[in-house]
Amino acid sequence: MQERSGALVSLYPANAMSPKRSSPFAIDPPIEPMLAKLAEELPPEGPFLYEPKWDGFRAIVFRGGDDVFIQSRDLRPLDRYFPELHDALIEKLPEGCVVDGEIVIATGHGLDFDALQMRLHPAASRVAKLAKDTPSRFVAFDVLAAGGTDVRGLPQGERRSLLEKLLAKVRRPVHLTPMTRDRDLAVEWLARFEGAGLDGVIAKPGDAVYQPGKRAMI
Predict the structure, then answer these.
(1) Range of the domain at 60
(2) In a domain, 20, yes or no
(3) Which stretch of DSSP H or E encloses residue 190?
(4) Cβ-based burial of 182 (10 A; exposed 0-12, middle 13-18, buried ≥19)
(5) H/E element holding 191?
(6) pLDDT-based confidence at 99, cuts 50/70/90?
(7) Fewer CB within 10 A of the terminal residue: the chain, N end or C end?
(8) What is the mean pLDDT of residues 200-216?
(9) What tens digit of pLDDT does each residue of 11-58 get?
C-alpha cells in the first residue's frame, strides 16, 4: 500500500496558517496528525479498533465561531481547494470541535484520487468548476476537541464514542467512518476493500491517546 494520503503541492508557505489574532478554535492550528506504520497483516487479537483506510487527502477540520479551517497532513490550508466542503462543514459540524479525517471524491467506480489531485490548481475559477463537477466529501475518523474541550488525552475508544455522538445526525457530504472491534470482520474488509479503491485497514489501539506526529496506528 502506497502511503500517499494528503500529498500536496506547496502552493502556500508553511507558516501561511499561523493566526495573527486570537484563534476562534478549541485547539489552535496547526496540529500534526497522528500517523500509521505499515504492516502486511492485521495485528493479533487485542483491544483494537479497525477502520477502512481511505484513499484521499488527510485533513484536520477546526470548527469555531462561524468559520471552519481545513488543515492538510503537511500543516497547510486546504480550504481554497474545496470551497464546497468548507461551506458544508460550517453548516454540519458542531461549533467548538476539531475532527480528524480524510477528504475523498467518490465516483461510480470507487474513490478517485486523481480527481483530488486535480483540485490543487492555482486558479479559483478552475477549482470552482471542479467543485461543481466532482464534489468532495469528508470522512471523519477521530475527534481532537468537542464542545470547546481538548480531548486528545482520552483513550481512542472513548474518542470514538464521543465522535459517534458528535456526528450522530450528520449528513453528506460529511460521513462517519465505519468501525469494528471484530478482527474477523476487519480481515474480511481487508480483502474486500482492495477492489473498491481503498488503501486497506487501519488498526488503532483502543487505549491510546492522540499522539500528534507519531506512528501510533497500524
Answers:
(1) 35-217
(2) no
(3) helix 183-193
(4) exposed
(5) helix 183-193
(6) very high
(7) N
(8) 96
(9) 333 344 444 446 899 999 999 999 999 998 899 878 999 999 998 999
Rounded CA-CA distance 123/141 in Å is 31
CATH number for the domain harbouring residue 93? 3.30.470.30
CA atoms in the 13 A half-sphere facing the CB of 202: 25
Residue 10 located in a structural domain: no
Residue-wise DSSP of 91-134: HHSPTTEEEEEEEE-EETTEE-HHHHHHT--S-HHHHHHHHHHS
Position 204 in a domain: yes
Of the residues 20, 37, 53, 132, only one is catalytic, namely: 53
Residue 65 three-state SS: coil
Q: Which three cell numbers stand for residue 46?
A: 487485542
Residue 53: active-site member: yes
Residue 26 falls inside a structural domain:
no
| Amino acid making up residue 30 | P
In angstroms, what CA-CA distances link 2 with 9, 53, 54, 73, 123? 18, 11, 12, 15, 29
Look at residue 52 and give its three-state secondary structure.
Answer: strand
Q: Quick check: pTM over 0.85?
A: yes
Residue type (1 letter), 128: A
C-alpha cell at 205: 489501539
